[in-house]
Amino acid sequence: MRNALMHRLTSSKHHNAFPQRRRQVEPFEHLPLVSEGMSCFTFSSFQGLAIYGNLAQMNFLVSYDIENQVVSFKPTQCS
């Protein structure tokens, strides 16, 4: 994956990396395991375009307000 940000795991302990966030960010949403001891961000950017991957959107109802140019994510149970 081009421009992928990989992270080598040193602990399974939850880390509050985004203390100002509005919602709880679960580690598996943005840093799923891709191999033993290695995780990869589920979002990226390329030439000014931000990509929020399908794994990051799991268990969210996604709303697209085209008129106001807003994308909203509502946590939900999709299973």
Automatic annotation (TrEMBL):
Which BP terms does GO give this entry? proteolysis
Bias (Basic residues): 10-21
Provide any one GO MF term from the record: peptidase activity
Q: Name one GO cellular component term.
A: extracellular region
- Supply the Gene3D superfamilies for this chain: Acid Proteases (2.40.70.10)
Recorded coiled-coil stretches = none
| SUPFAM superfamilies on file | Acid proteases
| Location of region: Disordered | 1-21
Could you tell me which InterPro entries the record lists for this protein?
Answer: Peptidase_aspartic_dom_sf (IPR021109), Plant_Aspart_Prot_A1 (IPR051708)
**Origin: domain of life:** Eukaryota
- Write the record's keywords in alphabetical order, separated by commas: Hydrolase, Protease
By what name is this protein known? Aspartic proteinase CDR1-like
What is the native source organism of this protein? Gossypium australe
From the broadest rank down, the organism's phylogenetic lineage runs: Eukaryota, Viridiplantae, Streptophyta, Embryophyta, Tracheophyta
